[in-house]
Structures are given as C-alpha cells and as structure tokens.
C-alpha cells in the first residue's frame, strides 16, 4: 500500500517540511537554484521570499495562479506574498482541489537574518497546518571563508548552525592558502562542537544535493519507516568528546557565544512513567523554553514499553508526542534524547531528567520541590557546568 492509497482512506500523512537558513550571502539562493534542477525535487514546493532574486527564467513553465509556479523539473515555486501561513494554506488548497497533483515536500528559504525557530513555531502551533505538515529538518548554510567571523559576530548565525540537522559548507572552493585551510579545519571542529549531530556537507564537492538535504527527519524517505539512530545521530555526540579537546588546540577557541551553547544526549534503559515524562517536558518548556534550541528523541514509556514516544521540540514548542507502533532498531529500546541548549548547562538538564525519571542523584532536590518552584532548583546558579 502506498502513501497515496492510505491517504484516500484515512487522514493524509503530514507533508514533510524543510527549512533552509544561512546568514546573508551564505549561498542560499545559489543552492536553491541548483536544487530546483534536481529531479529528486519533483513534487516539492519551494517557498521563497521573492522570485526576483532567483534565476528562474529558464526553469519557468507555467504560472498557475495564487503565486504558485510550476517548473520544468516538476517542482512548484511560490513566493511568500501574504505570510507563510497563507502560502502554506494555498498549497493545501491547491492539493485538496486537485489543482496541484502531488505535493511530497515543502522547502522554505528563510531570510538571512532569521532565527528559524519562529518559522517553525508558526507551523507547529497552527491548529490546522500542524496536522498537515511536519518538520522534516533544518538545513543551515555556512560560508567557509567568512563563516567563522560571522559566527563570532552574530548570535543569530550561531543559533542557525546550532539548530541545524544538516550544515552545508559553501565556498570551500575559494580556500587557497594554508592559513585559510587551517582556519577552515578549525571551523569544522567548531561546528562539530556546537552541533555534533548535524552532518556537514561541502557544496562545491557536490554533496549538497536533495538526497542529502531532504528526508533528514525520523522517517526514512525511501522506506517511510522510522529510523531513530539516523535521526538522532547519537554517536556523533560521543565522538565530539575527543573533538572538543582538539578544538582547544586550534587558535580560535575564544568564542564566548559558543560556550553558551551545549549539545548533549541523555539516555536510560529504565522505562519512564508517562506522567513523569509529561512533567519533565512541561517544566523544561515553561521554565526554560527559549533555552532549548532543539530537543529530539525517543522515550520508553513504563505503561507502554513496546511503543516508543517520539519527542521533537524547537524552543518551547513541541510537536504533539507521536507514538510509534514499535521500536525500529532491533534491540536498542532505551530512552534517548539529544539536546542543543543555550545558557542551559548539561548537568542541570541531567539532574532534572534524573529527578523525574527515577535515577535520582543524591544531591538532587525531589520532584515535588522542582514542580513547586522550577526556577529555584538546587545546584543551578546560572553558571555552567
Ligand atoms: N565560489 C563560490 N561562490 C559561491 C558559493 N555559493 C555561493 N556563492 C556566491 O556567493 C554570493 C552570495 O550567494 P547567494 O546564493 O546570493 O547567497 P544568499 O545566502 O542567498 O544571500 P542573501 O540572499 O543575501 O541572504 C554569490 O555571489 C554566489 O555566487 C560557492 O560554493 N562557491
């Protein structure tokens, strides 16, 4: 049974949505232009701010009203004319009234200065759009020549890199001198420390193709089966421990902004009561939401240990937790969560998690005390572990 067959009977599966970010001049338009010619982009709608910036002339086939244009690749292109919500609603309307034959995916290009979180929230908090779309991934472009300085100077750029599922390195072809090469090597280490789980791809090596950038979410794009290991990429967080030390051998480790960002994983084989998970997430969300740049994971629930619950949040907004029919990866049935935080130390999150999930550390205040006053949790003084 294909997805389409299923769609005719039950509710349609949500359409995966990819957000492309990157600082001014990082190469977003260049990348999109290339992606639009990729046959793998057929039945994808690309939502961009303005057509003018992108060289669409030779791709243009027909305009079909409502600002949606069909390209020769089969790709749909639309501008954000009203707002993003209206644009995404227009696409659904086109799909539902048959004007658009298929819509397998949406790619949104953000403006360079944007923090991607509000865009993701727009969709995740919308009562209808949140049912019809799901966040597949965030792709962040960084310039190999200027990226290091941009991350130093602009916190938005740092956050864009930290929340990414894929990082595309552009302009590596412009690296010439040994000094540039060495700076770039250090930059790679910096990115791996900031966001270990995001695969890094080189645009000029031909790695930034649709197959590597899209379908980075929980569901394997081919089989449509959840692939937790690939989605979380936990191994990368373990490897990073080594990287971190190497990183300090490089010259540019004095980045105070970077020190505010933390990437870590939590795991436990002990099943977690559904109510305890809910309380943990509520507390994290309400008291520390803006500091949770990204949270992804699977949880083994005590009441239903055979069916993992999927957690996916961007700051204080979480997708409604989804229950998978079974654990996908053979024997690994542990709860595993990956966190990227800003100004929220790993030790603090770990103690909270332990308190709610039963692995209480001796010096941790009890759960009741935390729930009563989440802002005055023992051991957290605003300094970093
Ligand atoms: N050499 C080289 N130049 C690139 C590469 N990617 C982008 N550029 C150039 O960098 C400049 C900026 O690229 P754009 O694609 O316009 O960047 P953008 O992120 O869309 O920029 P804004 O729309 O201003 O945010 C252009 O002159 C591109 O030709 C690359 O991989 N190598």
TrEMBL record:
Keyword Heme in record: no
Keyword vocabulary terms for this entry: Chaperone, Hydrolase, Nucleotide-binding
Name of the protein in its database record: GTP-binding protein
Reaction it catalyzes: GTP + H2O = GDP + phosphate + H(+)
SMART domains for this protein: CobW_C
Species, as recorded: Stappia sediminis
Molecular function GO terms recorded: hydrolase activity; nucleotide binding
CDD domains cross-referenced by the UniProt entry: CobW-like (cd03112)
Record-stated family: Belongs to the SIMIBI class G3E GTPase family. ZNG1 subfamily.
Disordered: annotated span: 360-385
CobW C-terminal domain boundaries: 261-357
């Amino acid at each position: 049974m294909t997805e389409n067959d299923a769609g005719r009977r039950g509710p349609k599966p949500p359409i995966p949505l990819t957000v492309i970010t990157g600082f001014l001049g990082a190469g977003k338009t260049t990348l999109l232009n290339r992606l639009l010619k990729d046959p793998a982009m057929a039945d994808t709608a690309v939502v961009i701010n303005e057509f003018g910036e992108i060289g669409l002339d030779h791709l243009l086939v027909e305009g079909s009203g409502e600002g949606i244009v069909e390209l020769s690749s089969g790709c749909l292109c639309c501008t954000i004319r009203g707002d993003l919500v209206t644009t995404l609603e227009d696409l659904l309307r086109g799909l539902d009234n048959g004007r658009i034959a298929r819509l397998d995916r949406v790619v949104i290009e953000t403006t360079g200065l944007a923090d991607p979180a509000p865009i993701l929230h727009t969709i995740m908090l919308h009562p209808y759009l949140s049912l019809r779309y799901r966040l597949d991934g965030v792709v962040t472009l960084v310039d190999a020549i200027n990226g290091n300085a941009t991350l130093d100077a602009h916190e938005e750029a740092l956050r864009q890199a930290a929340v990414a599922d894929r990082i595309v390195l552009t302009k590596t072809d412009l690296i010439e001198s040994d000094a540039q090469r060495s700076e770039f090597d250090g930059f790679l280490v910096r990115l791996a420390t900031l966001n270990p789980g995001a695969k890094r791809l080189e645009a000029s090596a031909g790695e930034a193709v649709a197959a590597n950038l899209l379908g980075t979410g929980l569901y394997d794009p081919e089989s449509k089966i959840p692939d937790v290991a690939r989605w979380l990429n936990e191994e990368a967080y373990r490897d990073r421990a080594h990287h971190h030390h190497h990183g300090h051998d490089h010259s540019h480790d004095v980045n105070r902004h970077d020190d505010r960002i933390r990437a870590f994983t939590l795991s436990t084989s002990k099943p977690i009561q559904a109510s305890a998970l809910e309380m943990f997430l509520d507390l994290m969300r309400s008291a520390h939401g803006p500091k949770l740049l990204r949270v992804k994971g699977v949880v083994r629930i005590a009441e239903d240990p055979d069916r993992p619950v999927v957690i996916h949040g961007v700051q204080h907004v979480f997708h409604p937790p989804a229950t998978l029919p079974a654990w996908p990866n053979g024997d690994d049935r542990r709860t595993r969560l990956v966190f990227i935080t800003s100004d929220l130390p790993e030790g603090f999150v770990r103690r909270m998690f332990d308190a709610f999930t039963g692995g209480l550390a001796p010096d941790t205040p009890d759960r009741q005390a935390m729930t009563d006053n989440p802002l005055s949790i023992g051991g957290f003084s605003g300094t970093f572990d």
